[in-house]
Structure formats: C-alpha cells, structure tokens
Amino acid sequence: MKPDLLRPLLGLLGLAIGFGVYPLVHRAPEPWPHLLVGAMFVALGVSAWVYARGERWIQVLGAGLMLYGVARMFFLR
Fold it and tell me: What is the spatial distance between Cα 33 and Cα 60, in angstroms, rounded to a whole number?
C-alpha cells in the first residue's frame, strides 16, 4: 500500500492558513468578518468535496462545512 502524503500536507497547510488568516479577518470592518469567515468555510467545504473522490464521509463533511459557511454568512452572528 502506497502512503498518500498529500493528505497530511493538505491538513497542515489548512491548519496554518486557518490559524493565520482567521485572526486577520476579524480586523475588517463590519459586516465583512462574518461574510469572510463564512466564505472560508464554504471554500473549505468545496475543496473537501472535490478532494474526496468517492469517499462518502468526506463528502458529507464537505457538505456540512458548506452549509455552516452559508449559515455563518447570513444567519449566525
């Protein structure tokens, strides 16, 4: 079995971006922080959905992230 080195690399890259970008977003004037954070969750969900390649639980996770992102943009404050 050949190890998939891309998964841990993408995970570390996602964590680095998340911890680096998330605090910077909150410096934006209102209402941009909620919209930008929601858009990041939607982008994360879309990338998980595309990357899943038939793995159903990752696709469900991606769909959940997309729904949360949309809810965060428009309903959750």
Answer: 26
